[in-house]
Amino acid sequence: MYTMKELKLARIEAQNGQKTVVAVGSLRIGRDFVIMAGPCAVESEEQTLSIARKVKKSGAHILRGGAFKPRTSPYSFQGLGEKGLEILKKAKEETGLPVISEVMDSRQIEAVSACADILQVGSRNMQNYTLLKELGKVKKPIMLKRGMNASLEDWLNSAEYLLAGGNPNVILCERGIRTFETSMRNTLDLSIVPAAKRITHLPVIVDPSHGTGRADLIEPMCLAAIAAGADGLLIEVHNQPSCALSDQEQQISPDAFERLVPKLKKIKQLMNEIQP
Ligand code: PEP
Ligand code: MN
Question: How many whole angstroms separate alpha carbon 174 and alpha carbon 234?
């Protein structure tokens, strides 16, 4: 068994078996199953507000949207930055949905915190220890995405940085890892969900969008993630996926999201019955 004894705070024993519950508005992440949905990137006010209204109506609990985007190419759309945050703020005011958005750098913490209810640390920054130390000083919840080449031990040690820095509001997110498989963007590692939960008290969210990179695989992987014990899902939804400025292949339409949510609820209900 992998016990990871070096973890002082992230291990389940540190809280005598008590699971961490992260409060976001009236939501209790870790206790209530949460669905985070929204575009990969905030592209315009019209786009974000239209998606926000639709996902809210379909049953999303949290709106996602990147204002600062970590892109592989410096020539790709880099996000609207502060203007994107203003748009997210409007969407939040109108829909009442709490917001999650990525912070790529310590210099963005203040601006992103002023708008977002959860700060996302992206896969590429999971081992940016300077950033993690700064985020340890913040009280806002942090969602720490798994690095694309990070082991469970690496990931939990990164969570430990946040906890040791003084921020107890940490949520983990599995988003796929790099493997030899080329028919998908990443390999969504669902075995990490129960494996992480054996060791840590932190909630675990699953992101099948970046995890597979394929819109046609979102539904089956969402259902499987719930069966694997995920505390929630992060799903990219775009009003016109084929015209999206980033991650075109993996974003689902608001209509597909609307059809998906009742299925998620059914599987969750079934899981509650068989594994209360
Ligand atoms: C994202 O969620 O917007 C994102 C960039 O994801 P990841 O860091 O997992 O690639
Ligand atoms: Mn994306």
Answer: 10
